[in-house]
Amino acid sequence: MLLTLSRPLVFLDFETTGLDTQNDRIVELAFVKMHPDGTREPLVQRINPGIEVSKGAAKVTGIHTSDACGLFWGPPLKKVGQKLVDFLSGADIAGFNQIAYDVPLWLVECKRHGIAFDLGDKKQVDVRVIFNAKEPTWDRFTMGPRNLSAAVRHFCGRELTNAHSAEADCQATADVLLAQLARYPDLPRDVAGLHEFCNRNSREASDEARNAPKAGGAFA
After folding, report:
1. pLDDT (mean) for 93-120
2. pTM above 0.85, yes or no
3. Is 45 helix (H, G, I), strand (E, B) or coil?
4. Where are the beta strands (DSSP E) in the chain?
5. Phi-psi bin for 164: left (phi > 0), alpha (psi -120 to 50), beta?
6. Which fold has domain 9-201?
7. How many other CB atoms are found less than 10 A from the CB of residue 123?
8. Quick one: which of 145, 134, 138, 121 has its CA closest to 197?
């Protein structure tokens, strides 16, 4: 395997009630644990968010309030929190845009529900950050937005199936990371090195965004 793992790497993906990391809630999650031998172990959990699913989120995921808050969907996050924390124990974290979105939302959800979780020494590998850093000339007008579907098409040479199914997105993210490692021999082959690469490039992207002219400014 192109990726050297000293401990498991858990790819995570959340389907949520909206895009606000402080106020929106998880309605479905998937964790896919990649073990050092390359085998993958999935955990999928539906969650009753306790609030309405926004129309925008429902349009994307197909999950409506009547589903997520229905009797047969799933339990509140607090009821399954320990199971999820146990699955993440002793593992690092990966995902597509999880540094900016999934992990901040997860930390707020854990605090909201009294779930004892701490990132501690966990490393984070963000496949979207790698995509952004290694493809700086990507033209969104001709090639589309830098989303997971585009990443699967670009790096894996296939279409993403079952998009916005949490497990399908997790599995696809793992495939994209391995394809990125095959394409870019200068990328680190270990999680610690990828963690540093992602942290450095996500900080640089944030700095550029803060320093960019605002809409309506002199350069708009």
Report:
1. 97
2. yes
3. strand
4. 9-16, 26-34, 40-46, 92-95, 124-126
5. left
6. Nucleotidyltransferase; domain 5 (3.30.420)
7. 20
8. 134
